[in-house]
Amino acid sequence: xxxxxxxxxxxxxxxxxxxxxxxxxxxxxxxxxTFLAVPQLARDVAGxxxxxxxxxxxxxxPIYRWHEGRFVEHETLALAGGxxxxxxxxxxxxxxxxxxxxxxxxxxxxxxxxxxxxxxSRSWVTLQKFPVFAAKQWFAFSFDSRHFxxxxxxxxxxxxxxxxxxxxxxxxWNGERFEPFQTFDGQWGxxxxxxxxxxxxxxxYADHVSGSSVQRWDGEKFAPLQVFAENGGRAxxxxxxxxxLWMLHANLLKHTTLYRLDGAQFVEVxxxxxxxxxxxxxxxxxxxxxxxxxCFITGTPKVPVVVPQSLIFQWQDDRFxxxxxxxxxxxxxxxxFIADGQxxxxxxxxxxxxxxxxxxxxxxxxxx
Length: 368
Prior knowledge:
Blueprint: E1 11-17, E2 26-30, E3 33-37, E4 60-67, E5 70-78, E6 82-90, E7 93-100, E8 111-120, E9 123-133, E10 135-143, E11 146-153, E12 169-173, E13 178-183, E14 189-197, E15 200-207, E16 212-217, E17 222-228, E18 233-241, E19 244-251, E20 255-262, E21 265-273, E22 277-285, E23 288-295, E24 297-299, E25 304-306, E26 309-316, E27 319-327, E28 331-339, E29 342-349, E30 361-366
Antiparallel strand pairs: 1-30, 2-3, 3-4, 4-5, 6-7, 7-8, 8-9, 10-11, 11-12, 12-13, 14-15, 15-16, 16-17, 18-19, 19-20, 20-21, 22-23, 23-26, 24-25, 26-27, 28-29, 29-30
């Protein structure tokens, strides 16, 4: 990985948000305003020793509203073991899909329900529930007037036998509800990414133990195109530059890597970072394209090492150059948005240095 090309910092911290085990950031705008939803994994339990998979997971997800240059508390959703909230719209209807990995305070139950809410009369009303196992992420995408919702889920834990379906899968909207469309074989799903390019549709799936993959639409379903046969898959992102399709892949255990579509395969171009990368946020700034690489932990869940910073790269000459770093604390996600003509970045932090859940997430002004 290259050294930082030092210059003025691209980020100015503006606000600390009092989160607990924050796992994702979802910024969305409706006719009611601009909002930030933060699923939370757990809260600390007094007297309990530090453990990143401990705590009280019967918790809620705060939803903040943008007001005069900052986020203010607005409402909450009950979301035990919160991992993800995904906002999307279909035909003017507004939805929020919620995923949680577990319930309880220990022992925990990984068989839960994932809920899709619809916004009705300024309230989130349950539309549909799904039996899930260790749910991690919902991801909405559309093409050819079809609307899909992908679920990444599953985990492998000794002695735990799922009662609910454990495979990651894709659902399709039938006009009123989501119905099963396709199932994937992964055992520990984390994340999805989608892009349409050159008349083709690509869906990437990140899995921690079963190998991550890129799927291509064959006219009826998504078919395997390329497999990344290594443990630790966390996130993918696609983008176009210079008439070419590029892909980023964050592997928590090994590396964050840039790929280019070369004919029918994604070919490795550069390794941006080593172990610890968890999420990828592409930012269209005033001076070009940037990448926020969100860094989480190294080590193991029983002996984790909190990564104390995340990184900013800038796209230059078909490469991402490292241009800035900023303090984070086991960061899990980032979202970029524009309000009142100014670009911002909000980052969720999951753990303190001493492995406690009560850790602020941060709103930054982005000056790139």
